[in-house]
């Protein structure tokens, strides 16, 4: 079967609530005696699953996915009008590229499979995401057909060439690996709901002394009914003080919230789910050991080590399964634009570019435009200014450029160069013990300490207490050099 129009899809499935999904296609987990929950239902109801899945899906969807032609090993050309670029940018009239990628990554992270249906029509082909929980395939090691069993029970078979499939054929959902953790969280959640439904009262039993008058069965039943109506689940007197008779005593039999370690258990569940998807813990709100320095490094780790392999898989599958449908596929490839997410703040970009170029890199009128100021009529404002002194960008392997501050005028001038040079000598001695590739990370981990030490040394020399900015500027320049050194090997 070949679908040629988007409208043709409307007859294939009647929308139904997600909780009516059959577990046969979607997979399901038995959460401690409760009715089996489909993977989709677990994603819908367990926040510690949804948080990492949505975090990764949104971050991948935000990346651009441009198409290029590789001209040579050192040259490439972007092709915004290529067929593949058009299909990815405009999948179908009802879906944007962002939504298509986000839904696809969500499917992949929940089921370890994701599917696109190719709609071959004129003038361009369209793409529609098919629900991964309703898909299956036939054909063994090399699929010959994909089967979509819709929510209303209709079964449609597609030739393998009509489907773009992401993920291993024998892939197992990460939720299967998290089965016990998720079951524990579901059971704990059910218990907490029951506890609050009982107005958070402590569970217990009421004891009567041996010498108390013996009750008949009717008296026991009547007293229990009255107690439960007043104080147990659904009682009409929350917070009321009970009065016990005949020397009765209340004996707690349940664990307290502290003893049950509810918060620790919920935190453990989030940590395990984040670890399953290889997400640095501060990225999902676990900030126990987070600092500015390590969060910045973890942000880089997210795109290099966490998302990098998955993005490579998506790129390879798109090229393998969609380029054959293009008239032009010579040296064509697509690539997620990770650089956009790693380029840092404006200050970091400006400092990095200035260091790389070795001179000013913006025209005065370009800078004025960024501040919504009118252009300057002076012709020099449309030219890049000449080098205004100061060090050029250091070559890889060179030591950090000595800091040379502008001399102060008058008798109060203080030369801080010896202090800064001694500070950098200590840094160089410490970092020389590490491989070049590890020096920037080690320096970043100790950056706060380096800033404090240099600020204290400068303040002792100048007699002022406002040297923190100068210290941070000096160490930022050193860090920039170390990053360039690691980049060039």
Strand order of the largest sheet: 4-3-13
Major sheet characteristics: 3 strands, antiparallel
The low-pLDDT segments are 13-25, 389-398, 401-411
- CA-based shape: flat
Report the radius of gyration as a whole number of Å.
32 Å
Task: Note the total helix count.
Answer: 18
Strand fraction: 5-15%
Total strand segments: 13
Commentary on this structure:
The protein has helices at 23-26, 39-45, 47-62, 83-89, 97-111, 174-177, 179-197, 217-231, 257-260, 262-276, 292-322, 339-342, 346-357, 364-370, 417-431, 436-445, 447-462, 468-488; strands at residues 28-29, 37-38, 67-72, 75-78, 114-119, 126-130, 135-138, 145-149, 155-159, 163-166, 204-207, 249-252, 332-334. The protein is mainly alpha-helical and 489 residues long. Helices cover 45% and strands 11% of the residues. The longest helix is centred in the middle third of the chain and has 31 residues, at 292-322. The strands form 5 sheets. The chain has a 3-stranded antiparallel sheet with strand order 4-3-13. A 3-stranded antiparallel sheet has the order 6-5-10. Strands 7-8-9 form a 3-stranded antiparallel sheet, with no helix packed on it.
């Amino acid at each position: 079967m070949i679908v040629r129009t988007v409208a043709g899809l409307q007859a294939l499935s009647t929308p139904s609530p997600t909780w009516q999904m059959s577990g046969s296609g979607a997979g399901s987990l038995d959460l401690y005696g409760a009715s089996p929950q489909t993977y989709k239902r677990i994603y819908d109801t367990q926040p510690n699953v949804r948080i990492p899945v949505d975090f990764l899906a949104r971050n991948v969807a935000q990346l651009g996915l441009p198409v290029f032609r590789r001209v040579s090993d050192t040259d490439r050309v972007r092709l915004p009008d290529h067929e593949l670029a058009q299909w990815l940018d405009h999948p179908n009239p009802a879906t944007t590229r962002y939504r298509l990628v986000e839904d696809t990554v969500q499917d992949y992270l929940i089921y370890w499979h994701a599917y696109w249906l190719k709609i071959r029509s004129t003038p361009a082909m369209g793409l529609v995401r098919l629900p991964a929980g309703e898909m299956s395939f036939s054909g063994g090691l090399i699929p010959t057909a994909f089967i979509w069993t819709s929510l209303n029970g209709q079964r449609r078979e597609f030739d393998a060439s009509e489907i773009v499939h992401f993920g291993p054929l024998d892939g197992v959902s990460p939720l299967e690996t998290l089965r016990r953790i998720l079951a524990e969280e579901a059971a704990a959640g059910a218990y907490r709901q029951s506890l609050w439904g009982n107005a958070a009262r402590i569970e217990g039993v009421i004891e009567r002394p041996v010498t108390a008058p013996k009750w008949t069965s009717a008296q026991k039943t009547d007293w229990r009914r009255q107690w439960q109506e007043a104080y147990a689940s659904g009682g009409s007197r929350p917070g009321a003080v009970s009065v016990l008779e005949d020397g009765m005593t209340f004996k707690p039999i349940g664990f307290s919230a502290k003893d049950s370690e509810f918060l620790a258990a919920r935190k453990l569940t989030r940590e395990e789910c984040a670890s399953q998807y290889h997400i640095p813990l501060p990225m999902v709100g676990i900030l126990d050991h987070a600092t500015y320095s390590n969060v910045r490094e973890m942000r880089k780790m997210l795109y290099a080590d966490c998302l990098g392999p998955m993005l490579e898989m998506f790129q390879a599958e798109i090229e393998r399964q969609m380029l054959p449908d293009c008239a032009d596929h010579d040296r064509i490839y697509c690539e997620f634009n990770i650089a956009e997410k790693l380029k840092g703040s404006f200050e970091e970009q400006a400092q990095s570019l200035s260091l790389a170029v070795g001179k000013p890199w913006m025209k005065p009128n370009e800078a004025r435009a960024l501040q919504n100021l009118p252009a300057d009529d002076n012709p020099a404002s449309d030219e890049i200014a000449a080098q205004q002194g100061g060090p050029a960008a250091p070559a890889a392997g060179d030591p950090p450029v000595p800091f040379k501050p502008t001399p102060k005028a008058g008798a109060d001038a203080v030369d801080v160069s010896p202090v800064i040079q001694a500070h950098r000598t200590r840094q160089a001695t410490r970092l020389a013990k590490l491989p070049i590739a590890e020096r920037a990370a080690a320096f970043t981990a100790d950056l706060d300490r380096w800033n404090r030490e240099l600020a204290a040394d400068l303040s002792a020399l100048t007699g002022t207490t406002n040297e923190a900015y100068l210290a941070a500027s000096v160490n930022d320049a050193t860090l920039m050099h170390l990053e360039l050194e690691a980049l060039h090997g």
